[in-house]
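Sanity check record (used in CI):
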Amino acid sequence: MIEEVKLQEKVAELLDIFFSKRKESLQNLKLIQTLSRKNPYLYRASGVADASEIVEEILRAHVSSSDETLFGNVFFEPLAEWSAKHANPDATVMTSDGEGVDVTMQIPGEGVVRPIAVKSGVNVFNAASKKKQGENFASLNKRLSKLALRFDPVVGYCYGRKKQTERSKATFREVAGQEFWAMLTGDNQYYIKIATCMLDTPVDRRPEFQQAFDEAKNRFVLEFLKEFSNDNGSINWDKLIAFNSAAEKPKLTSVAKKKAVPTLR
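Expected output for Cytoplasmic protein:
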C-alpha cells in the first residue's frame, strides 16, 4: 500500500509539471497558424462581430484539446509507472521500449510479463488504431518470448469504464478507471485517492494560468485587429477568408520582412 503522503508529494510534482506545460503551450501558440486551421465561414455565419470573441474561442478550443493530451503525457503516464513501482517493490517495473507500450511489469511468483499501454480515457481507439495497438503488443511478445513467461498485454484507461472484449476477439485486455488503478496498486480506492491528494494545488496554480490565458488573449486580439479589421474596427471578412482559403495567401503585416544585408564596398 502506497503511503498517502508519498502520493501527495508525487501528485504535487506532476501537477507542477502539468501547469508549467499548460502555460508554455499558451505562450508558444501562434494566432496566424491557428487561424489557418479554423473555419472562418462558421464565425461569419454565427454573426460574430467581436474580434475578442473569435480569439477567446480559439484559445478555449486550444486549451480543451491540448489539455487532455498534455495531462495524459505528463500526469497519468508517469503516475501509472510510479504507482506500479511503489506498490510492487518486489516487482520489476520499467518504462517499456516497445512501440505503443508505456510500462512493463514482471511480478515474481506470477510467471507473467505484463506490458501496459496507458491511455487517458476510453475513447482513444478507432478500428485502425486498435489493430495497430495489437500489432505493437505482438511485436513486443516476439521480443520477450525468450523469457518463457505468460504474456498478458493490457491497455489501461486512467478514467472511465470499459467492458472487457471477449478474449477470443481481442489480443489484449482493456481495464479502465477504478479497475486499472487497482490492478497497478492492489488498492481498490486508489482512483479516488489520486484526486484527493491533489489538495489545493490546482486552485493555487489556477491564477497563474489565468494570467497566461489573459495575456495570450490580449496579444491575439491586438494582432487580429491589426491584420483583419477595417478602419472603423469591423472585421475584414474578405481578408480573413482569403488568408484562410485563397489559392495564394495574402501578405500579412505581422510577418517580419527580411532586412537586406548591406553590401560592403
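The longest helix spans residues 51-87. If this sentence no longer matches the regenerated C-alpha cells, the check is flagged for review.
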